[in-house]
Amino acid sequence: MTESPTRGPRVGLFATCLMNVFRPNVGFSAVKLLEDAGCTVEVPANQTCCGQPGYNSGDYDAARALARQVIETFENYDYIVGPSGSCMATIRHDYPVLFHDDPVWLPRAQELSEKAWELLSFLTDVLGATASDAHYDGSVTYHDSCSGLRGLGIKGQPRTLLGEVDGLKLKEMEDSEVCCGFGGTFCVKYPEISEKMVEDKVRNILATGADTVVGGDLGCLMNIAGRLKRINAPVKVFHTSEVLAGLADGPGLAGAAKESD
Amino acid sequence: MTAAANAREAILNSVRSALRRGPLDDKRRAELDARRPQHTRPAQDEELVARFIRKFESRAGTTARVASRADVPAAVEAYRVDKGLPAHAAVGAALKDLAWPAGLAVHHDPAGISETMAVSQALAGIAEPGSLMMASGPASPITHNFVPDDHVVVLDAGAIVGHFEEAWEVLRARAEGMPRATNIISGPSRTADVEQTIQLGAHGPRRVHVIIVG
Amino acid sequence: MEIRSKEFKERAVFAIHDASLQQALGKARGGFVGKRAQQAAELPEFEQLREEAKNTKNHILDNLDHYLERYEAAVTAAGGHVHWARDAEEARKIILDICKRVDAKTVTKGKSMVSEEIGLNEALIEHGMEVVETDLGEYIIQLAHEPPSHIIAPAVHKTKDQVSDLFEAAHGGPRKTEVADLVNEARRVLRDKYFRADVGITGGNFLVAETGSSIIVTNEGNGDLTQTLAKVHIVTSGIERVVPTLDDATLFLRLLARSATGQETETYTTISTGPRRAEDLDGPEEYHVVLVDNGRSKMLGGRFKDMLRCIRCGACMNHCPVYGAVGGHAYGWVYPGPMGSVLTPLIKGLDNAYDLPNACTLNGRCASVCPVKIPLPDLLRELRHMQHQQDITPVMQRRALKVWRYVATRPKLYHALEQVGARFLSAIAKNGSIRRLPLASGWTDVRDLPAPAGRTFLELWQGKRGQK
Ligand code: SF4
């Protein structure tokens, strides 16, 4: 699969909505990691959203409309890879369910489902990447995002890769597998419950003494970063890919351009 | 049709219509009746008595071992004296034939509200969880298992089986069929209902002592 | 019991600010989770058993009518009586009639969620009977006049101090403060009730078709005293609790205690078959089983069939971060947490419990521990789908979804709006984040909104690589 850099797989990068608007750096990190691993990366312009907001709100028709768009846009790539366990689990698991009684779209959904990978899982489980040549000065704690963890089995991969980063010290937090309280529209529909959950998460993060928290889903990271900022806790927040790609030299999420600001 | 028969038919019909079918035919019913499940049994690699003791004691139960049935009364008496209990006990009629010490007042009736100690014969032991299996009957009243503070149970070493499934075979082999109560007892009564703090002796016995014979 | 699930939001907020509740929940959470994890780790066959349990339950459900008939025949052969109740009202009437026939004055009860579901206590009390809950947790909340907040640990929301107060008020002083003294006091009070009881009512964890037996699992032994010392033993159970053989029951027993309380086994597993035999010295003279449908047979037909596999272990709520934050009472009816969020709307009506399926992040931790592998998040999403289809979802949300769909299926428009949004948010941000955003107050009331950089990834990418 990774015979030579020029003949590596052709990957369509799924540019998630949150990444596109809030954190372009994650997209560039993903591209760098994929290209370093020998892939040819393209970012199709016709993409928008995976459809999960509709799906999880019970509007299956809307979700299907979006799913068809994603399938059409990406089905000609060898792989569709995205820096989000949440979006990629939707494509992997939910698309075939959405089209379970549609003889035309089901095969196409299934085919795409098999080619859909979360970034770090793709790098390790498909491409066999184990090493990172990045450098990061700091102690890092990793939050297991729920969709990635339970939907896609992402647990060891990011930790292995982070462990390879020169200068980085990994510190496990208590209850790293417990939801941070984001949950898509949940966090704005039930802000008080979400607050309680993110408060618990932040307490566990702070208890590690780590100066940085990383994770694989921007939704969770924005929630955590926003809460850390609200209580003035000086912990930096990055997407795992930014650290692995060596692009975590700027401010983290919700971080001011200069830390001293 | 009576209201009761109505409800029965209505529920069964509702089940069938949910399953999109009518009543099962006789062939299918016979197949279901012949079904003998073979579920996974957790692996064990320990001698049965040793495992029983280890597991039973892990939940605050206590055990003693004697060579023969004739040694049981002395072992019971030793336990009673050690715990400083009054010299009377409800003893299951299954143990009537034993030579109970003269100083110990025994009776074979159900346990009353002020009963302090009972002695019962177990039907079997199950090594898997380290539990006793008691079968109720005229020779082993149910109240003996639950009312007194101290429950002493006589268990034949040879009656300890490996898994639950083997204990069910013991029940199935009984000529008198299933007892009213089959009590599987795994230690003293306990509760954690106040702040998750484990407290022994919630409603049933505070102590369960097993005398293994053989 | 009256349903109050419509007040979920208010009750949840109230719970979050209830300091003693939060203290009690905090204590409970870690214990259950850690002990279950340890038990699962110590049994190499655990995952295999979960898979078998799921398949076996599916087999039972597919043949439920047959096994119910076989069960009924076996109970009758053992000298017991089976009663069928289509709904809560029928179930209450059957039990009331039995109690009245034997002129019951005192009724003791082991823990039974079905009896909560059918609102039994209120009905018995209304007819002049003294009803005594004997499970310590149930006893505590009965004194507090509260419903259970957990299906396994009904008083998990109470602190020791609160229990002390309740006992002092009910039993008189001196006030006990040690757990051991509190438990002893309850033991003493309840002893008397067991011996005086005319009718003892328990639940049934499993109903065994092979032998006509009901099985209950307890740690305290209260269920046994309840059903042994009363003249009449009544079992209340859902129709889905039948299992073909003792061997099948074993499969679930191996999972139940481990999943529920993180014990290898609970102290007492009791298999009850018929009333006392002619020669027996103790045990109830009558044995009745009330099989309750109450919406279950309907569930069997559709997407929610999976829910009928539930063995009521409570693991899903022990692992649910929302339950952990708000406790069981916020859910407003008998069954809380993930399983309750599926069951309540199905039994009591979708529009009576709008929030329950929605107040969930779909994080999936519940499903990952459920011993019978019920896909709880999928079922909750399915309920949202039904709410959407039946227009129960708030109008604003439906409008927003329409707009979102319109825009998201038009990539150029979508990207243009993203660009505007990114620029706007970037412009109003200070020090990397936004503290207040009126239209997104649900977000900014509790946390900052991290600011975008200004330009979107797709914009930057096209600038750099100029791809199509
Ligand atoms: S849904 Fe599963 S985890 Fe929850 S109570 Fe039922 S069996 Fe237990």
TrEMBL record, chain A:
Residues 11-92, 140-224 form the Cysteine-rich domain. It comes from the Bacteria. Pfam families: CCG (PF02754). This is (Fe-S)-binding protein.
TrEMBL record, chain B:
Residues 22-43 are annotated as: Disordered. Residues 22-36 have a biased composition (Basic and acidic residues). Residues 117-213 form the LUD domain. Signal peptide: none annotated. This is Lactate utilization protein C. It comes from the Bacteria. SUPFAM superfamilies: NagB/RpiA/CoA transferase-like.
UniProtKB/TrEMBL annotation, chain C:
This is Iron-sulfur cluster-binding protein. InterPro entries: 4Fe4S_Fe-S-bd, 4Fe4S_Fe_S_CS, FTHF_cligase-like_sf, Helical_ferredxn, LUD_dom, LutB/LldF, LutB_C, NagB/RpiA_transferase-like. The keyword Transmembrane does not apply. Keywords: 4Fe-4S, Electron transport, Iron, Iron-sulfur, Metal-binding, Repeat, Transport. The keyword Electron transport applies. It comes from the Bacteria. Residues 301-331 form the 4Fe-4S ferredoxin-type domain. Pfam families: Fer4_8, LUD_dom, LutB_C.
